[in-house]
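Whiteboard transcription, Tuesday session. T.W. wrote the structure tokens on the left side:
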């Protein structure tokens, strides 16, 4: 099991030497966005979702809640995040309360398939499907909770070559829970689940640049509370991920799809 970190808010506050409510947004962006590209990746996803204050969005695999809060702040919409890891949902809820966004954003410990609501206006999922073996079933579960015409945005990691990335990785410590697909296989899984492709963009070069600049951004944020510091073996996992994208073993793609 990869996502085993507990007492996450306490760990954040110990690293930062202050209450999470005192952290600036750039400082939070360095810890609550558990994916390559950070807050900038979410900005790249937002236009394709066509959000406004009347929409309600589903965040599948919401983690620490950074993207959900960013989406709510940017568009004024309501966001429901679901995640299977209770400690992540607890931390996401605490961070959301500290940000004053509890009325707009809420988080649930559940599989998306078990949600009762089936009229979401949009959905997004960021760096989640790498842990999912049956990708068609995963995306069908998302489609089942969206109204016809709703948009799904994804920002995800794919296998590019025949080589294997070095372990550990952000989503897998020893590899048994990593299920990487090629870009074509991933699009096929999404399309077979009730979606039509709107766009599919290789963002690997941009992600390599983002990783190159990450250290300087974390230093400039001026806090010891960073995602690599928070995760078990975090620096090694991030370095291996960055190297695999830089070497062409992995790629990162951004996609937008419309529910049929």
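and on the right, the sequence the group agreed on:
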């Amino acid at each position: 099991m990869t996502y085993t970190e507990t007492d996450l808010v306490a760990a954040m506050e110990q690293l930062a030497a202050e209450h999470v409510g005192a952290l600036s947004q750039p400082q939070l962006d360095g810890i609550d966005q558990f994916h390559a590209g950070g807050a900038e990746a979410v900005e790249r996803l937002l236009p394709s979702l066509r959000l406004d204050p009347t929409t309600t969005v589903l965040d599948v695999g919401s983690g620490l809640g950074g993207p959900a809060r960013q989406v709510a702040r940017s568009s004024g919409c309501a966001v429901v995040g679901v995640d299977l890891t209770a400690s992540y949902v607890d931390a996401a809820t605490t961070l959301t309360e500290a940000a004053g966004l509890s009325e707009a954003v809420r988080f649930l410990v559940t599989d998306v398939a078990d949600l009762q609501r089936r009229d979401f206006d949009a959905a997004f999922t960021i760096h989640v499907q790498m842990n999912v073996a049956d990708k068609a079933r995963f995306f069908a579960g998302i489609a089942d909770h969206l109204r016809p015409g709703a948009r799904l945005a994804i920002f995800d990691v794919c296998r590019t070559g025949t080589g294997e990335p070095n372990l550990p990785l952000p989503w897998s410590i020893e590899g048994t829970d990593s299920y990487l697909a090629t870009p074509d296989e991933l699009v096929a899984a999404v399309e077979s689940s009730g979606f039509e492709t709107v766009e599919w963009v290789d963002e690997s070069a941009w992600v390599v640049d983002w990783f190159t600049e990450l250290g300087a951004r974390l230093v400039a944020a001026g806090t010891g509370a960073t995602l690599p510091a928070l995760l078990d073996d975090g620096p090694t996992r991030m370095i291996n991920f960055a190297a695999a994208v830089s070497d062409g073993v992995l790629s990162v793609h951004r996609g937008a799809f419309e529910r049929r």
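Someone added at the bottom: The radius of gyration is 17 Å.
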